[in-house]
Specification:
Strand order of the largest sheet: 1-2
Number of domains: 1
Number of strands: 2
Structural class: mainly alpha
Radius of gyration: 23 Å
Shape: elongated
């Protein structure tokens, strides 16, 4: 490998890896220092580029187009992995509304947006499950394997294919389906608690139980979340397997 082809290989690998790591949780969530993220991208690039051979050397516009295609492919792979956190984030939003805690929110500095207590809890749980189930290691292995299936500089063949782009809506739909399935028991528990309070308040008006609706909904939501936590872990593990194995293979055309 000549110096020119080696430099091209390094740039192609760095473009794909760095763009993917920007979105892979928890590295791309604004919680990782930029210097540490850049160092990780450079280190993994050096490891991968030393064992790969790029496609035929390109110059000028062809080189820039190939580099942009590598960046687009990296963003696509990183976004697919990022969808593993979507069910629990949606669950957190549902919990906030069902427990009556949607209004009191604090500013999340990593998202630069208001965040409720249940959303922050669900998001932290998502990160914990992602790391505990080996999501970060699986993501890095998947990115390394992508260079076995698609040589550096060849991302233009699949980056903008209709088949590759169709993977994102499919995974997105599965993630939302998992979110609704996880949120359904919590919604039912909160609804039953509200109906119980309404019946008791109607039967015994002197009790004035309507002041206890919000605490009861909060307790019901928290209790349902704890009871169905094993189901949450299984759903997250299943979706993690999809976004780090089946979906990337479909994107790469394997």
């Amino acid at each position: 490998m000549t110096l020119g082809s080696g430099l091209e290989c390094f740039l192609f690998v760095f473009a794909r890896l760095s763009c993917a790591l920007v979105l892979v949780p928890p590295l791309g969530e604004g919680r990782t220092p930029r210097l540490a993220l850049v160092c990780l991208a450079l280190w993994t690039t050096l490891v991968v580029a030393g064992t790969r051979t790029p496609i035929q050397a390109a110059t000028g516009a062809d080189f820039l187009a190939a580099l942009a295609a590598e960046a687009c492919l990296g963003l696509l792979l990183g976004f697919v992995v990022r969808l593993a956190l979507l069910p629990l984030e949606v669950l957190g939003e549902y919990l906030s509304h069902e427990a009556g805690l949607a209004m009191p929110a604090t500013l999340d500095p990593t998202r630069a947006a208001p965040s409720t207590a249940f959303f922050a809890l669900a998001r932290a749980l998502a990160f914990l499950l992602f790391l505990a189930l080996g999501g970060l290691e699986s993501s890095l292995r998947m990115l390394g394997r992508s260079f076995e299936l698609l040589a550096p500089g060849a991302a233009g063949r699949v980056a903008l294919r209709a088949e590759s782009l169709a993977v994102v809506p499919e995974v997105f739909a599965r993630a939302f389906q998992a979110a609704f399935e996880l949120a359904l028991p919590v919604v039912v528990a909160a609804l039953l608690g509200t109906v119980t309070i309404a019946i008791l308040a109607r039967a015994v008006p002197r009790l004035n139980l309507f002041t206890d609706v919000f605490p009861l909904r909060t307790v019901a939501a928290c209790g349902a979340l704890l009871i169905f936590l094993p189901l949450t872990a299984r759903a997250t593990a299943w979706l993690l397997g999809q976004v780090t194995d089946a979906a990337p293979l479909a994107v790469l055309g394997a």
